[in-house]
């Protein structure tokens, strides 16, 4: 069975970006001129998926508004003769079919995915996290879907990270199966660098079989009361094969301040309109003059 639906969990609290995220969803923070979540929706569409299920929570209405038709804005832009902007705004609402499911309490990523169960039904589906923005020739999700078509099992996107950073990620114990492809023998959440089974970290792109819902239901909350996807995946490993795929492309951890800044600089440098003048600005920047405040 092919993949036709993607779940985008966006109900987290975004505490790393407070106070910016007090009333504005983290997913709506702009990378140059588009909110983070739009990059992820564009990747989903470019991968050939036509139905997106966004998991939202309290204070996340701006996400729904962003992907909805903005009649007044379009009228105003038409009146002012700004037809190119009308096109830009209209394209967003015509992009793909959206469905919203509310996670009433932020009880973890696993729980957020479980909220999509009714809408997904009994079919394999994709999960994309807006924290990870990926620049690649072939969309990262499409790369995973290609692997899925051959192997018909859950696939986790992984990336090699420096050993001293493995404790920020879920890490796989791999058995090499082919070019960039591994069978997942085990998963360890946030391991100590000297205990990590590898340097292959799980990032925010997944293809999951529907059996994951049953495993999430059976997963106990962690010490913070959250139901973690990694724990459910460990349960799934007992009954199904899971693969990891080392995707091709550059990932930006836009859920952290430093990663967000790196993404902003690099996307701005690649921007057809801004790139050249931004590059000149950076080249002329007097770094000595700019010392940290405080
Ligand atoms: P994070 O671990 O990045 O948490 O969630 P967060 O709340 O978004 O951000 P910080 O760490 O407090 O700054 C990973 C993904 O899972 C979603 C988030 O929206 C994000 O896409 N998530 C997390 C939910 O949808 N619900 C939850 O209960 C937790």
Quickly list its features.
single chain; 294 residues; alpha/beta; Spore Coat Polysaccharide Biosynthesis Protein SpsA, Chain A; 9-stranded mixed beta sheet; 11 helices; 34% helix; globular; binds uridine 5'-triphosphate; nucleotidyltransferase
Describe the model.
GO terms for molecular function: UTP:glucose-1-phosphate uridylyltransferase activity. This is UTP--glucose-1-phosphate uridylyltransferase. The chain is built from 11 helices and 13 strands. The chain is α/β, with parallel strands linked by helices and 294 residues long. It has one domain (5-282): Spore Coat Polysaccharide Biosynthesis Protein SpsA, Chain A (Alpha-Beta Complex), CATH 3.90.550. The chain is globular and about 60 Å long. The model has no long low-confidence stretch (mean pLDDT 93).
């Amino acid at each position: 069975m092919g993949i036709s639906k993607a779940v985008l969990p966006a109900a987290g609290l975004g505490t790393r970006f407070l106070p910016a995220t007090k009333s504005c969803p983290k997913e709506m923070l702009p990378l140059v001129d588009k909110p983070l979540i739009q990059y992820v929706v564009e990747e989903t569409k470019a991968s050939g998926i036509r139905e997106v299920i966004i998991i939202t929570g309290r204070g996340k209405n701006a996400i729904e508004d962003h992907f909805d038709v903005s009649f007044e804005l379009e009228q105003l832009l038409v009146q002012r003769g700004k037809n190119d902007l009308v096109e830009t705004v209209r394209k967003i609402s015509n992009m793909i079919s959206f469905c919203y499911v509310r996670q009433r309490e932020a009880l973890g990523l696993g729980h957020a995915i479980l909220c999509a169960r009714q809408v997904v039904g009994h079919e394999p589906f994709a999960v994309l996290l807006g924290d990870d923005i990926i620049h690649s020739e072939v969309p990262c999700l499409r790369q995973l879907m290609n692997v899925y078509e051959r192997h018909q099992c859950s696939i986790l996107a992984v990336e090699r990270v420096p050993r001293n950073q493995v404790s920020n990620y879920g890490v796989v114990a791999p058995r090499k199966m082919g070019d960039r492809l591994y069978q997942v023998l085990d998963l360890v959440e946030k391991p100590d660098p000297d205990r990590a089974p590898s340097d292959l970290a799980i990032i925010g792109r997944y293809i999951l079989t529907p059996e994951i819902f049953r495993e999430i239901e059976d997963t106990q909350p962690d010490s913070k009361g959250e139901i973690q996807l990694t724990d459910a995946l460990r349960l799934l490993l007992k009954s199904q094969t899971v693969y990891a795929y080392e995707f091709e492309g550059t990932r930006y951890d836009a859920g952290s301040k430093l990663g967000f800044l790196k993404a902003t600089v690099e996307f701005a440098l690649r921007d057809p309109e801004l790139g050249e003048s931004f590059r000149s600005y950076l080249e002329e920047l007097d770094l000595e003059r700019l010392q940290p405040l405080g």
